[in-house]
Amino acid sequence: MIAAIGVTSALGDSCDDVFRALLQGTPVVSPPPFALPFVTVTGSLTGPLDPLPAHLRAYDTRLARITLRALPQVTAAVERARSRYGRERIGVLVGTSTGGLDATEPAYRLYRKTGQRDPAFSLRQSHAFDALATLVRDLLDVSGPCYAVSTACTSSAKALASARRLIQADFCDAVLVVGVDALCETTLRGFHALGVLSTQAARPFCAQRDGIHIGEGAALMLLQREGEGPAYLSAVGESSDAHSMSAPQPEGLGASDAITRGLAEAGIHPEQVDFVNAHGTGTPQNDIAESRAILRVLPAQVPVSSTKGLTGHTLGACGTLEALFVALSLERGELPPSAGSAPLDTGIGLHVLQQSVRHSVRVALSNALAFGGSNACVVLTAP
Amino acid sequence: MKQALTVLGFGSIGPYNPASHAVPGTPIEPPKLDLALLERTLRRGLSDVTRLFMHAAKLALDDAGRQPEGMHVIFASAFGEIAAAEALLAEAYDADGSSPARFRNSVHNTAPGLLSISRKNQLACTAVAAGWETVPMALFEAAGQLANGDDPVLLVFAEERVPGALSAKHDHAPLAAAFVLTRRPDPSARQRGTLVNLRRAPRPSAALSRAETVGELPSDGLMTVESHPLASVRSLAQALEQGGSQTLTLGEGSEPWCVDVHAETKP
Question: Which of A15, A213, A279, A318 is catalytic?
Fold first, then answer.
């Protein structure tokens, strides 16, 4: 059971604000918060992010600040779980692709320019993938398994898979999954070098799509053995493309395998699926390959949306962030539009939603696809 | 982890000191790394950590008499592709640019991704990090996968040197170890041991102290080495190699973990 959720993204800092913005379908974009030698837009968080307390200075990255903005939304639920199960039975898993790279960049520049080390920077507590997991674990006073899953843009979808297994294997009774990534220069420069960065908000499934824009955010999900909540995490199907480090398998074979595995693990027939949140990055290659993957497994009339035109591609965060969006749709019976998708690419062949719709949803999927050919399909069901 | 994880094969390399050519009496060159798991077209421009991954994985697979096909692969490393990250930072600083090839191979799941591509293995692979608790946490990840029926698992630990521009004190010796694990052992097949009851250690033990020092380099006056994040994986490999049963403390901190290791008697 997903017992509690918390969120912050370009769309807002609460589930209500975020869901309202999802249904409205208006992209929230802004210039990058740092200078770059090319033009693009970002889905950056609004307003200043609170610094961490002085005694946690080494952990004080943008990644941590983003997470701590959303953490209060789940703190009470974690405390209840701690009382119910004991602190040693609660784990913390972080899914992130960048870790604290946003803090490493200025520390590196300072060292190169002056030869001086930034005393506030710690490779272990600022940069490392798992630093945030340790910070969250200690702030919540829990002591179960605690680690980071980092598989590029499937990181937090696969963290959900790992968390589910930890509970099923009886290592934990509850696991807090944090999907988070922060804007940093290295990722924007890298995607620009790969030629997939747009100069405008991404337009997944649109005939005129020309690439991604990068966003940031955090989504927190408390998975619990029992209890009440907006949705069940019924399965996470995983696979590898075994094709290329950065290009999707053109026919979407690996992605369809992840969908098939997820449905099989959940015991769900393809005809039962009410909605698909696509990975839908807005690159020409991804959207074609993913549409082929979806159509290989699911009926063509299943409604499909991508929210990346609204939030930007939040990289390692997107697996949990978009699963959270789907959980809200399951709870509230409304589906978001695929912003920017008109005019549709006629080669896609999916039933892409161009307006929000009221629609009872019992079973929904959320795809995440990544570098390394990593694929994950999160299967969510109504309680 | 009450149910035993059976070790079908394992192998390790290092720690070795690539800077030790200036130090009399220490190894001059690291052992040649075996990249046979990768097709030749994928071997160009590999990082040290990916090369270490491939070498250790090959040792473990050979020890188990298995091929990588059919394996669920887990890569575990505290810092992963840290040299690639530093190189990207340098490209931005020095040339205001970024190499697409380096960027795509800078993700934490680069090594298992390349292995899946090379061997056309479409099973899931993953990459985890837990700092100085990477060893016990990766065992949790492996045990979770095996309990889920994702069997067998190839669990590979690898750590490369941290570039000096990123840290003065985390100058870890390169180290890698790999294990082929199953919960469904074939009684007729060779086994190297079992891992049972991964749990919180009652208190820091002598084993912890030993594990903490395994990764340190010979004193050469050049490096100040903190405890190695993968130190206890070397202890785990040594325990399996030596035979017998013992409880190993894994990781560090105020609440370390431990596991019972029952090694098969050496042939």
Answer: A279
Mean pLDDT of A137-148: 97
Q: Do A171 and B120 touch (CB under 8 A)?
A: no
Asked if A129 lies within 8 A of B97 by C-beta distance, the reply is: no
Q: For A153, name the nearest residue in chain B, comparing CA atoms only.
A: B107
Residue A232 is inside which H or E element, if any?
A: strand A232-240
My answer on whether omega of the bond before B185 falls inside 30° of 0, hence cis, is: no
Mean pLDDT of chain A: 97
In degrees and rounded to multiples of 5, residue B210 shows phi and psi of: -65, -45
Where does the pLDDT of residue B214 fall: very low under 50, low under 70, confident under 90, or very high at 90 and above? Answer: very low
The pLDDT score that the predictor gives to residue B173 is: 83
Question: What is the third-level CATH fold of A2-381?
Answer: Peroxisomal Thiolase; Chain A, domain 1 (3.40.47)
Reported as a single tens digit per residue, the pLDDT across B19-36 is 543 444 444 456 789 999
Q: Hey, what amino acid is at B44?
A: R
The reported pLDDT for the residue numbered B189 is: 84
Residue B204 is predicted with a pLDDT of 52
State the alpha helices, DSSP H only, in chain B: 48-64, 82-95, 100-104, 110-119, 134-147, 206-214, 231-242
Contact A311, A10 (CB under 8 A): yes
**B108 → closest Cβ in A150, A162, A239:** A150
The answer to whether A55 is a known catalytic residue is no
Residue B243, Cβ density class (10 Å: 0-12 exposed, 13-18 middle, ≥19 buried): middle
Q: Is B88 within 8 Å of chain A by CB?
A: yes
The Cα–Cα gap between B54 and A343 comes to 46
pLDDT above 50 for A80: yes
Going by C-beta distance under 8 Å and a sequence separation of 6 or more, which residues neighbour residue B23? B17, B218, B220, B222
Model-level pTM?
0.95
Whether A88 and B131 lie within 8 Å, measured CB to CB: no
Are the beta carbons of A165 and B144 separated by less than 8 Å? yes
A152:B108 CB<8 A: yes
Instruction: State residue A81's pLDDT score.
Output: 98
- Picking from B80, B90, B144, the nearest residue to A162 by CB comes out as B144
**Of the candidates B49, B137, B162, the residue with the CA atom closest to the CA atom of residue A130:** B137
- A313 classed as catalytic: yes
Q: Please report, as a single letter, which amino acid is at residue A34.
A: F
Peptide bond before B204: cis, by omega within 30 degrees of 0? Answer: no
Q: With an 8 Å Cβ cutoff, is B95 touching chain A?
A: no
- The stretch A301-315 carries a mean pLDDT of 98
Chains A–B, number of C-beta pairs less than 8 Å apart: 198
Question: Using 50, 70 and 90 to split pLDDT, how confident is the model at B97?
Answer: confident
Neighbours of B253 (CB within 10 A): 12
Kindly indicate the confidence band of residue B203, based on its pLDDT and cuts at 50, 70 and 90.
low
Q: Is A291 exposed, middle or buried (0-12, 13-18, 19+ CB in 10 A)?
A: buried
The residue annotated as part of the active site, out of A153, A206, A318, A377, is A153
Q: Is A120 on the interface with B (CB under 8 A)?
A: no
Identify the weakest region by mean pLDDT among A110-119, A133-142, B17-26, B102-111.
B17-26
